[in-house]
Amino acid sequence: MVNDILQQLNIKPENSGVSTGTVWLEATGDYLQADSPVDGQVISKVKTASHKDYDTVIEKATAAFKEWRLWPAPRRGEVVRQAGEALRKNKEALGRLVSYEMGKSLQEGYGEVQEMIDICDFAVGLSRQLYGLTMHSERPGHRMYEQWHPLGITGIISAFNFPVAVWSWNSMLAMVCGNVCVWKPSEKTPLSAIACQLIIQDVLRANNVPEGVCNLVTGGRELGEWMAADTRIPLVSATGSTRMGKAVGAAVGTRLGRSLLELGGNNAIIISENADLDMSLIGCVFGAVGTAGQRCTSTRRLIIHESVYEAFTQKLVKAYQQLRIGNPLDENNHVGPLIDKAAVQLYQQAITEVKAEGGSFLVEGGVLEGDNYTSGCYVKPCIAAVENNFKIVQHETFAPILYVMKYKTLEEAIAMQNGVPQGLSSAIMTLNLREAELFLSQTGSDCGIANVNIGTSGAEIGGAFGGEKETGGGRESGSDAWRAYMRRQTNTINYSTHLPLAQGIKFDL
What we know:
Residues 24-490 form the Aldehyde dehydrogenase domain. Belongs to the aldehyde dehydrogenase family. This protein has two domains: 1-263 and 472-490, Aldehyde Dehydrogenase, Chain A, domain 1 (3-Layer(aba) Sandwich), CATH 3.40.605.10; 267-452, Aldehyde Dehydrogenase, Chain A, domain 2 (3-Layer(aba) Sandwich). It is 36% helix and 20% strand. It contains 14 helices and 23 strands. The strands form six sheets. Strands 14-15-16-13-12-18-19 form a seven-stranded mixed β-sheet, sandwiched between helices. It has a six-stranded mixed β-sheet with strand order 2-9-8-7-10-11, with helices on both faces. Strands 1-4-3 form a three-stranded mixed β-sheet, covered by helices on one side. Helix 1 crosses helix 4 (91-102). It is globular.
């Protein structure tokens, strides 16, 4: 089955990981081995970008921008529309590849490709709405307005947990805005990126899109460092850990470039005494174990009112006992593997630290062994009773470890929710209108995403996605997130026969 997927997507035993959109270059870097956490098998090999290859791509992108920015935005939108149609045709195969290469469930793999399709649809409409404002001038016979222009090259650094969707969030918006893109995917999931490039290259060719508009460069950390330091790239959008984001932000800031950062999350759900506990259970369990806890929006903490703590944790334990862990391509399974053995070690280390700080486990964790878990990357989702101030709880562990704790008052719960360095996603489960409104007020959640009666995990593309504090402050996807990919220009036109100065200043000759 896996070979059929690779054949359908034109993935070969050895692949170049460098493309200028319509052309694949003969990469001259080292080989990168792409293997699967599902069964530990090597899927394929990818030749990565050397510094020479990288410079070639940047030069192509720089030249392409000069032409691409002159295309009318609706014409650029038509290219993106066709890209969405190509993704629709390949949704099943690409979704399966994402599931196999990354380890998320098959339904989540399909869902990720659907996100790509949805952002294409959004970007097509946006291509006719890149609007500015008009302002009244204080000077007679003058008109003021603002307009938005493309920046140039958008550098995109994406993470393994969403190997294709985050690229589309950035690239489709950036392209309709008139930018060109250079994508560095995670070195842990290069084949999904290559598949995307293969899918859209026919669209680019059919529309005579200039070579260099939509580029791919694969490689490791060094490649990301080149992008962050490159003055030819005015905007770097980076998704990943807070540690990585701080390094990228510092490098881009040193050269006074722009960075769009989507970093770590330490997301909490408050379970009110007024919550519908059965409905709440669904959001909490999926949020905690979906993608094996490897989403930036994964639910890490449950802050439960003391009056319903016992009842709700009993429901949680029962639900966890019903989880099926195994091959994510089997739709009967709920939880797949972690991305690699290094992630397994971090999971084990977190469990050790919970116990060392005095926490106890309602559901024990552990690494799974046996014929169905030969990759060594499968672990048990676990639940730990902790205090919010535990050192390990203050950090993001990219694994299915759910921390539960009690609260007495809603004000205390909100303080606990906000009392971590990260600020991405948050939620409250309550049927009390006053509680919901307080949670959403300026004294409530300090996160970029705040939900009522839905979980922390997952977001529709219509709203801007991103968070505060150590999450980086960036916004991607919907609403007016497109403005991050453009530069604002204020224009004043004098159509009178005089030249009055602003603020009433007189300057007579």
